[in-house]
Request: fold
Amino acid sequence: MLIEGLHLEKSFRTRYVETKVLDKVSINIGSSEIISLTGKSGSGKTTLLNAIGLLAPPDHGHYRVKGEEVDLSNIASHHRIRRERFGFVFQEFMLVDYMTARENVRLVASAESSRLEINAKIERLAAELEIEHRLDHYPPQLSGGQRQRVAILRAVMNSPECIFADEPTGNLDSRTGARVLRLLRSLKSKGCAVVIATHDQEIAESCQRQYQLTDGTCKEITTN
Ligand SMILES: Nc1ncnc2c1ncn2[C@@H]1O[C@H](COP(=O)(O)OP(=O)(O)OP(=O)(O)O)[C@@H](O)[C@H]1O
Ligand SMILES: [Mg+2]
Reply:
């Protein structure tokens, strides 16, 4: 198993109230599995992706990567795991506006590769995502769908073992959306798992396994 989350809990505290968004949530992600995460708006999909992606780790619970327990309070180890193993496609893209698309992607590229290798990889992936003609544009000069594809390009750049994609087709027309999904699915053959948070039932059902979030709990939906 690539990632095992057991009884994960996550609460948000504001001055007056504490809201428990994840209440003993358990979720497993196998190597090269494609998994969907559904649930109505506010049910905690983004919170769960950020928790299992160790961006905003759970407060409590057990979390293992490839069988090894990760200390949920050890921020430095989370940083390393994210950098070496994970890629993220954020719901709001999180691109740096004053850097071009290419620079945004280069920013995350592993320091071990040469500039030439990095550029070649960016060009190849950009062509797959049909964004190669926009690499030297700045995010504000791009459409929502183009920004999303740059965000996906950045997520796949370091050949991660798992990609967490938050509504990756939310801003795309159906043809581009299908293309993005094809690209995410093609990562399977490269040994990459993908967790997709989505409102789109069709996408959810096309994944190998489905989890659904309701009122802080998460259950796996079994389909025959
Ligand atoms: N930083 C935060 N501080 C306080 N509450 C938060 C914070 N982040 C999320 N929440 C709350 O946690 C709940 C779950 O939010 P989350 O963004 O995970 O939902 P979601 O399922 O991704 O929704 P959507 O489908 O609209 O993207 C919401 O009630 C939200 O208000
Ligand atoms: Mg969300």
In short: Residues 3-221 form a domain with the Rossmann fold fold (CATH 3.40.50.300). The helical segments are 45-52, 75-85, 101-106, 115-128, 144-156, 174-186, 201-205.
